[in-house]
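wait is this the right file?? whatever heres the structure
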């Protein structure tokens, strides 16, 4: 993958794919990261598939990056395949940190618990899933056609978003355009 060895420097940017490749459309994040191998982001961006390794992501969030973009499947009540870009709200102390699993809200709480420094700005590029099994007994590898089509749109969105964030990490996230959406901070993006 691209990015400097040893992780991002202060002010760097992390793009993190999250999700379980065996649970249908939950594999959206890892699939986007895989697609970025063919269309790499700038070298100063650290791109990594975290899968379901929440502890690894928590430590990566504490590794000096100014901004992190989590790429994930997240039900938000839209048509399947719809992309949303939202800013994650910092943990408010009511979410219990969890060392195992990949609930993004619990990962942010864990990172807050583990580190002394403030968390980086965290944006979530979310795709509305069509099929999202809830348990290991419902193993369903592979994306639905609708969500698979959203993978390239997500890569396009990252190629628009990342240069804007590199130029100004605090700038408002640019709108994604149709059929995507963007919006203000919203806790519901972290189911």
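ok assuming it is, sequence goes like this
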């Amino acid at each position: 993958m691209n990015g400097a060895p040893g992780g991002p420097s202060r002010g760097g940017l992390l793009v993190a794919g999250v999700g379980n490749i065996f649970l249908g459309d939950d594999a959206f994040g890892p699939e986007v990261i895989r697609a970025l191998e063919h269309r790499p982001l700038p070298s100063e961006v650290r791109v990594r598939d975290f899968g379901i390794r929440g502890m690894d992501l928590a430590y990566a969030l504490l590794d000096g990056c100014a901004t992190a973009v989590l790429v994930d499947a997240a039900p938000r009540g839209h048509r399947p395949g719809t992309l949303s870009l939202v800013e994650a709200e910092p943990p408010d102390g009511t979410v219990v940190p969890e060392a195992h699993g990949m609930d993004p809200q619990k990962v942010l709480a864990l990172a807050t618990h583990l580190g002394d420094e403030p968390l980086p700005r965290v944006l979530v590029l979310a795709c509305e899933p069509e099929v999202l099994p809830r348990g290991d007994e419902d193993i369903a590898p592979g994306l639905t056609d609708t969500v698979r089509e959203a993978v390239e749109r997500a890569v396009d969105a990252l190629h628009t978003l990342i240069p804007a964030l590199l130029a100004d990490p605090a700038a408002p996230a640019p709108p994604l355009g149709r059929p995507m959406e963007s919006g203000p901070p919203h806790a519901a993006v972290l189911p």
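Helices lie at 28-36, 54-61, 104-114, 145-167. so i think its the right one actually
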